[in-house]
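Troubleshooting log. The previous structure file for this entry was overwritten by mistake, so regenerating from the original sequence record. Sequence copied from the archived sheet and checked twice against the printout by T.R.
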Amino acid sequence: MTDVTVSAEAVEEVEPAGPPDALEDQLISQLVDRAKADGIRLTGQGGLLQQLTKKILESALEGEITDHLGHEKHEKTRAGNTRNGTRSKTVVTEVGPVEIEVPRDRAGSFEPQIVRKRQRRLTGVDEMVLSLSARGLTHGEISAHLAEVYGAEVSKSTISTITDKVIDGMTEWQNRPLDSVYPVLFIDCVHVKLRDGQVANRPVYVVLAVTVEGTREILGLWAGDGGEGAKYWLQVLTEIKNRGVSDVCMVVCDGLKGLPDAIETVWPQAITQTCVVHLLRASFRYAARQDWDKISKALKPVYTAATEEAAT
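Regenerated output below.
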């Protein structure tokens, strides 16, 4: 994945080296690496992709065992094989180790396909996870994604059952109740390839919250087309508010068009803070690339100052 926007104070000095393109790549790489450590993490323990990978894999496994047993969870059945709890299993993926709960049956005849018995490594799941999680994908597109994962070994009816479970799981995740108050919200985006008649790069907006306990929580994902305005952001923020978020102390964003106005409408007392990294990038536009290192070092005492007086 590329074009990852980063969160506040995720700035790393860059040593000038190589041609201008190499310097730009180095700057972006270091900014993103620091952002993953200090702000919105895509991978690693508790990262966005790890959380979503767990949800999608467990939903797919639930679809598999439903198709295998022929009845839904908690559905009464007179005789035959039934569910028998779950077992924990850790699988290694491109987004790091993911601990999942694999369902079991009493007869021991269930053979999962997406995560086979004794399989410890999965590949090719990161982009699929973001694509499935972002809004705008049709039932057929999600089914096609899963068909690519399962291959020709699984019947169309099984793929349909698994698809329904995955859609239900992601809908439940996207609409789950939230805390009433969050000290800080970060609004950021990643760019991924999504199918919409044809494959195209589209922004997927991520809303990350810092809870009152000091932990981080992904509130949801929203797919856009790059031309979002005040109406779009008002809809997104109103949806978050309707899920239980009555107040936010600070919202950190990159000055997307219409977003500050939407924040003021939904949470009038919230402080809108422009992301420091985006301000730094904006300052680079007025200087040659070979001067970026000097500018970043000169600006660091300003954006790390404890008070406005200390920054002057």
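The beta strands are 83-93, 96-105, 181-196, 198-210, 216-223, 247-253, 271-274. Archived copy saved in two places this time.
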